[in-house]
Amino acid sequence: MLRSVFLAAAGSSRMERLISSVPVSKGIVQRFVAGAGVDDALRTSRVLADDGLAVSLDHLGEDTLTAEQAAATRDQYLLLLSRLKSAGLTPAAEVSLKLSAVGQKLDDKMAYEYASAICAAAAEAGTTVTLDAEDHSTTDSTLEILSELRRDHPSTGAVLQAYLRRTEGDCRELATAGSRVRLCKGAYAEPESVAYQSALDVDKAYVRCLNILMSGEGYPMVATHDPRLIAIAEDRARWFDRQSDEFEFQLLFGVRPEEQTRLAAAGHTVRVYVPYGDQWYGYLMRRLAERPANVAFFGKALTSKK
Ligand SMILES: Cc1cc2nc3c(=O)[nH]c(=O)nc-3n(C[C@H](O)[C@H](O)[C@H](O)COP(=O)(O)OP(=O)(O)OC[C@H]3O[C@@H](n4cnc5c(N)ncnc54)[C@H](O)[C@@H]3O)c2cc1C
Question: Where is the Proline dehydrogenase domain (predicted)?
Fold first, then answer.
């Protein structure tokens, strides 16, 4: 119930105007977002890298409505990649990209061209790009663009959402040699016709997808904070004899940081997904939807004078 309220709020521009008037420095935003600018992104990446954690940086922004905004997003990624390279933070840091931020909803071809420029800059900087998964209406287009990008940039990562009924099939298609695939539960409000609705069904689907990816030839990126799924992933990695450079765990910045450290200390590759930028509204609403306890924290931050 609470989840659907927050996911509905994520798409409301009125709520966005209201909530976004809270400065980025407010506690709840600061917990999940590295800061507003590229310097904040670099500072956070440095701290995480010094702790032995890999990073995937996301320049916040989605559902871009104009070609100018899409080009500006591309330029932000080009700047970020060049700064990461100069700071010696590649390959520890890669980038995550939402195709909707580079114009997917305006023109698929433009989104492909801008994503391709970002992949080329990432290659030049010695790192990689992963295409985030968005709502189900974009999945076909995203997977088509992924396959085009992989012709020139085979290390481009995919994201698959276990809650979508189609995803086991997509896992089979993508579990090929060299294919980097992030598996997450899925963060959007989706209808029953396309997505499992109960937490139990989503978890079961996650395990079926994990089995396909872990037994396949690709590089699974296990993106979850769920202790049970993390334990199952560790078990499957042992079963399929995967070494620490043959799969990785991924967690979000600000979520279960002690688990991030524990997994890294146990010898696993751990990547932290770090969002930055001033367009944090949709991202934050999805994080609140995931955990009721965050809502109290959010209320306190909104009413705090600091
Ligand atoms: C690295 C990474 C990348 C992602 N990329 C995408 C993407 O491209 N597309 C997409 O749709 N989704 C993405 N997601 C989000 C994902 O789909 C889930 O919505 C999110 O991870 C919550 O699911 P969970 O697997 O952690 O399990 P849950 O069952 O939601 O959570 C398990 C436990 O983790 C902790 N936890 C989870 N979320 C939070 C939170 N927000 N705050 C505090 N504690 C929390 C709680 O202890 C909770 O009990 C990504 C997630 C990660 C970790």
Answer: 41-297
